[in-house]
TrEMBL record, chains A, B, C, D, E, F:
Mn(2+) 1 binds at residues 35, 69, 149, 182. Mn(2+) 2 binds at residue 66. This is Catalase. The lineage of its organism: Bacteria, Pseudomonadati, Bacteroidota, Cytophagia, Cytophagales. The keyword Nucleotide-binding does not apply. Belongs to the manganese catalase family.
Length: 300, 300, 300, 300, 300, 300
């Protein structure tokens, strides 16, 4: 369970309130790269953790910390909204600055929240629970977490570039530092779980003997132009998981032409779909047979 | 630009149609772990690629392949829906099997699509464009891709376990193999970009000297219980990115109590918020001062 | 900021795991009546609180408690999923029970979360940040909170009726008790703020002299049938806020027929909309004039 | 403005309540093919109508009627839920029928609405305002309306097939009849606006001389397989709008390889994207030049 | 399956990058009128096509082409973002232009994508899979496609008006031309399927004898004002489908007053709903009887 | 069923069209505080009403009135868009005003609706059906309605402050007056149902003897800082519902540490989760036992 005190994890100071920057900060609160997502993601991973308990414990630690980050950012939004315009009256005609500010603000900061943060992104699109990833596979979850902290840190550095308010820059420097740690933290779990050779392919509990051979380490090229395809680490050498050899394979259809039954009467397609289907299907069946024999046979 | 033929990349065969399994397959089409997401994700990353062109080229290759995977799965859904019940009539009272099947189906496979796949997940929740991640940072994107292929492969192996239809198992074995390759492929890019020491912290173009010191390699523990915190790779040793030393730090507030201005009149808070605010704010200000001095001062 | 320990606020015990009940519990986690909503709602209200600090403090207390409730419910979901079927194989044909269970489960509990809770409702629809209400008006927010705890307690009692698992009934009895308190708690704030006469109409800081007279305490009846309209407390007597007298008023149009300009050329309506508009508009203008004089004049 | 009486537009009778059919009916209420959508769509088209007033008037008529259809369907949902199970207790273990029914129901009909209709589809996915199409172009809107009434009538006939309840079949027979009329009604507007030759291409107010020649009546084929492409009405003859001649054109790239600038420093891509970009761009530039000259030049 | 080359279908050139226009272009990518929608719509219609195979083949052709249109627009977005401001620093106070530009941009083009296109509309609202219509009825689908290409072409002409960048105007002229063809193409299928008399009412496979008589060709007027209702093509003459005669009918209730059972105890309504219901229901029942007899009887 | 005339409920006049204000008004149409929500909410509550019929009748009255409010606001949006810019051409470079206006507008008012209202909020986020609350519990619904009218009136007063257009101020004064009435109206129902002592805790049909004792009137404090917790009405005195005594209780865990089973093989967690789980679980079990005995036992 959870506890709180009334203080912030780190200083949140705004020297020159900027309502347009308040809108930008919303991305770090309710956006897909934001703190609500990581807070709930680590929490749900913890609450559903099956396997070694120490990972559950660690996820709870950091999930709880992220709640404090939402708090800091929400405070920063409110402080950036101090003194924001609430009117389009006379001034709107006279002073284009007000217009520009209003254009750059989230109008719902005035209309809906009364100058406070909301659970939305920088375009006012609400936080969406589908972003909370907890797959039940620890390694997949760790990659989801590294990814969240990577796009999160990219976002934070862009916000840092965007402002010259010393208080905001300081707060963001703290959050950037925490993202550095959190990237490392989830990578540390991946190292404990066996590193690249140990964890991949994720899930490592599925027998690779069941995979369709020749396709699990082949780079399939769908390119049909005339230029040469520049190779890379992914077209030659040992695979990164140490379990195969990379090679390049030109895309080619092995599956033949798909053939669906005509519509059922109760589904009320057009009559023409049912009548014409009969005729055509014979033709198709023939075509399909040709197509399959023409396309070079089955994959095994 | 893009081209097509009329054949499938790999065989899609359904021996015993199962409309409830059709619903399950929708997760691999329109779910967050599904193929529409990776198709569009690799495409958008390619179309917005800035930097070495070979990564753009590679992203296009695999994005194009994923479109063929949506096609395979959509075909599999349609084939699993052959012969599905379209009625709750008399049979519903008599035969509970029909009820069970209808209960397990996506009703929109009957009502909305006429026995065909849709751009939704296994609960009928529509595909959402917010899942398409392209951050402009190549390393962050590669982690987004490894994560997508990891949760995608976990999903595919669960679908493989769920069915004993030989055709479906074969198709899934192909898709599982491709996910193996794609995990390796994005990891290969990360290796090319410098590996763990080279790419982290992402973005590696932000000067770490700007990070708040002491927090970028500290595991912050918010735990206040009496048990000991079991350490892990993330509490000691060199950081995974090779740029710091892990250490544990007990969570403590450095930010003082936040203080917002009273509401502006035009925002029409309750009168009591404005009047009482004045009085209370004095008190708060004092409290805040105490809190800050009590909490141990500023972070540096 | 926030802290945690590793224990639950209250016992969560499942005697007979039931994967269909796990799905039902999701409504109390990620549904609009659920705990993520109230947790974030109280938090955002606290973080944006302007006015008396004691309300901010209290909101933080209860927001933090709600996080512990999400934890309890997420644990209950995971426990109800122990032993859930993961397969539609042979058994599906033979044993309709498995089908019924699978039909009653959230398939994503198998496919996406590996038998754990998710940030979705009982239909798998993701939690949506738009539900997090913090208006900046303390009284409006308190009603949002009473409403959330009322629909929340209704939901919890329905879940309580649905199960006969003693562990689940006990956990729900705890949550129902907390909802009782929380309803009372927010009502207590409304009492402190002045009760019905003091807080209404919300916001009480807008001068009622600006309201269009005769309409602020009139029950407008749009009914045009032949039966009599049964009165109620809302058609007679003093208004609940003590500032007016209820009376009934038959709906009648005071606004005349609306008239829009023809489309601008750059908006590319059909040509006919532009040509015909000219002709017709004259007619409309006349009609409008008639309509306005016919409808009984302006409201003052 | 709007008025009501307390009676339904047409009889709604349920002989054998079926809670699973209640769920099916939700598709016709809150689904994309449903009545909330057409109600709001016709209303918003009316309220924003620019041009001949008679179309505004007509849209209001039918929008108002659709509100009565939502009412009928909502009543039908409530009646189908009479006697629905509210429990998974003992019976769940003993009687699989209850399980099947619960599996086929929308659980939120029990948990959230207390046995009443909701503004959601048959999977519990909420109605979405993005479906309400009003483009400002009358002809485009009429097609949106024909489309809505076509998918709506398809849905209604599928629901009709699904039930053998005489009351429900009767109600659906009424709604199907109304959809027949509404398809005809919007087509009648299209006839008034000039028919196929008059309204197309929509918008007909854009000068076709500005279109890139040779592409406005060409069927572009992206097929690269070996079979012959079966022609159709769309590959030969006068175009349907009477303004061109259909012909077939093999897809070929005219646009060269796209070339984006390297990332800006403040966007914090990886360092390698910036460094390597410089080197590679030279190469690309050359390649692009080659590609453009190789691809056959500009379209005119 | 699918293939690609590295070149664009048509030239994409931006002479004067305009980050606000980049935002506008997003509507044509991820908006409901945009290219992701048509691409997936034609694909899903093809993959689920039952009936004559030539329609499947044709849908694949155009679905594949639309993918190339997304690519063109995504490239156009990236090019319009070259040189966009990334900062609100000093300049924000001094130079209102930057503010105006930032206000007009999608902030996520800076924060989330690093100056590249995203799968969202011009307000940053994500693409939604519910827009992908494939009903299983070929004629309904063709109308969905005509509608998509009509609103799509309206959008493209508005974008064309909005810009004076010659490169952008040229690209849009190409897309407008393609929309012209695609409108004609889907109409051509409708002609093949029998034209207005043949395809309507959609679905044409439902026996019209089952429709409630007198309502399938009646224009129902809900208007109760004093003006005369101006007729139109839809109030007289043969119906457009050739199967009936239009006529006008004043709206009147045929369904009586609905009557629901009192709440079940397990649903935990308020006690007063259960008690009072008993009393009132008697009254209601009487009223209902009166209402039905008063409202003129049943519809047949 | 429903009827209409062609006139507005109240005058809608715009003296100086302002396209940015048009965007603001969208919040009152399609936002969570807006009129589509209350219209559908009262309608769905009426259509699902079980219990005294007079509440159903009343809900229909006001639901019908709200439809007229959407109409007024939609008209106001269209009128504010008269003369709005449709172009970013030359002027954009020269005249920053156009840029400011375009930045402040909803671009979809140009691109998607052709200068008319849409079913979206002020950020273009679509109306969402999940906001339509009808719980089946009359008292809970009345609170949902008071809350909707409270946030709705707060919104309307903010819009009133924002504009100095006399026509718009007049229209808003009317809507504000109606919100005053509607707040009072739903409160009047709550008074009829028994007032605070009668209706709470909602639902009042659940036996409070089933609640976990000591927690239904306890204010639980999760605060662990050093300051004193300022009491309030909610920490002492009779509870507002008259059924208990408020008291303060320090948060303490009663539930022990949760313990989940190891992952099932078919869920394909990582191998390490399964192996390590076995070892660790022994330890955990011991810890849990200690934790439970240490945390002070069960709640009763």
């Amino acid at each position: 369970m959870f506890y709180h005190d009334r203080e912030l994890q780190y200083k949140v100071r705004v020297d020159k309130p900027n309502p347009a920057f308040a809108r930008m900060l919303q991305q770090a609160i309710g956006g897909i790269e934001g703190e609500i997502r990581v807070c709930l993601q680590y929490m749900f991973q913890a609450w559903g953790a099956r396997g070694p308990v120490k990972y559950r414990d660690m996820l709870l630690e950091t999930g709880t910390e992220e709640m404090a980050h939402i708090e800091m950012l929400a405070t920063a939004v409110a402080l950036n909204l101090e003194g924001a315009p609430t009117s389009m009256q006379d001034e709107f005609a006279k002073d284009k600055v007000v217009g520009a500010v209003l254009g750059g603000m989230d109008p719902r900061h005035i209309l809906s929240s009364g100058m406070a943060a909301m659970a939305v992104d920088s375009n006012g699109v609400p936080f969406n629970g589908s972003w909370v990833v907890g797959s039940g596979n620890l390694a997949a979850d760790m990659y989801a977490n590294v990814m969240a902290e990577s796009t999160g840190r990219v976002l934070a550095t862009r916000l840092w570039e965007m402002t010259d308010d010393p208080g905001m820059k300081d707060m963001l420097s703290f959050l950037i530092a925490r993202d550095t740690m959190h990237q490392n933290q989830w990578l540390a779990v991946l190292e404990e779980l066996g590193g690249l050779h140990g964890v991949h392919p994720i899930p490592n509990s599925f027998p690779q003997s069941e995979e369709v051979k020749d396709f699990n380490y082949a780079f399939v090229s769908t390119y049909i132009g005339n230029q040469t395809t520049e190779g890379g680490r992914w077209t030659q050498g040992n695979s990164i998981d140490g379990k195969g050899e990379f090679h390049l394979k030109k895309a080619a259809p092995l599956g033949g032409e798909p053939k669906l039954a005509p519509p059922v009467p109760e589904g009320h397609a057009q009559k023409e779909q049912m009548t014409m289907a009969d005729t055509v299907i014979g033709t198709v069946a023939d075509k399909v047979k040709g197509a399959i024999s023409g396309s070079g046979g089955s994959p095994e």
